[in-house]
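Run log, item B.
One chain of 408 residues. Sequence copied directly from the ordering sheet:
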Amino acid sequence: MKNMFYLLLSFVFACSVSYAQEGIHLSPSPQLTALGGTGTAVITDDAFAFFYNPAQLGQWSKDNNLATHFYTDAVDLYPVYVSGWKFNNTSVVAGYNFRNILPKLDISFGVGYLYNHYDYGVYTSEYSPDGIQGVYDYYKSYSVGVGFHSLVDFSLGLSYKNLYTRNSDNAADQKKISAEELTGVLDYGAFLNIPVHTLLMNSESFSFGNQFSPFLNMSIGCAWQNVKKESAKRGLESNYYQSGTREARLGYSFDLGTDFKINDQSLRPIEVKWITEAIAFLNSSVSPTGDVVYQGGFGDMDLGVNLIQRKGYQSVVRLSGFSVEFARVITINSGSRATQWDLFSTSGYSLRLQGVLELINAFYPVPALKNIAQHFDFKYDKGIFYKGIKDLETTMEGIQLTVKGYSF
């Protein structure tokens, strides 16, 4: 009965957003999904991070140049209850740090592209020539972010998303939907990272035989998603915008660990991240002039309840994540999502090539190997949501390729 309750919630939510996609709310990153769907306020090199906060591109571009993240296979959603519902995502991000060109202005700039596909499968239809009709939604997100790096890192970002719906799997019958059904929405956000270790210590390093460099970062992030001024007279679009799909996100995180060197090779034996975020679904009403008016700021979000006590409340979802990374080789991720009525867990892990190359080079130094470890990375991510809920537990897997550390 409890499992069915979760499923019904999902169906109700999907219907409430009309044609305008459940996929627009689903966390695309396997790793960040494993961290409870967080991503607004955590330092991460994940190429999907700008979905949660476009300002992540400003932070990401500080040290990274190019990355792509794609699923190993489409994710089957609710396979026990429905057939053919699949979810897939691909992202490409690029960035550059202008520190060598503008040494007095340490600025980085990033761009991102995300393609999201939510397939509802096929069904019989008297309106289709062959008696079979398929429905799927998708959106394309185009994002930019700029980061300013000094004593602290501060980033701003903006995304534009085009939402589409297709009503047939017959290629000859597929066409872009009408202007009223085609919807463009904006996301925008800010991200602040405070390197506490640098601000509190005279030196970033302590020497204990090997050169240890402990670090502690505190990050704060906020974002508003699916924003567009809309009129209640616009038919289908008004259904979408009156469904509570506009969101406000706010959160904070702590990132701590240590670096040290062996044979001039930097190693990071451990890094721990602790994340708390909240999503408020902004309520709407129709003004006398016919405009849809939304709650301002963070809606019903209560900082004390949602972010300090870490509870879900009314139309606010609380997200939490915890990760431990060992030697930049394996990361263990866990998290949870809580509303006023329910709680479910997430988990997963990530495997990286970078740490393996660093460890080899530390004990068997090879200049070419060190260069590869500094500038290239391969990462496999696995995330599980609805963890432990029979018939709903869902697994998503992805691979990320990254080029980083180049600054001309």
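Observations after the first pass:
- The first strand starts at residue 64 and ends at 71.
- The radius of gyration is 22 Å.
Flagged for discussion on Thursday.
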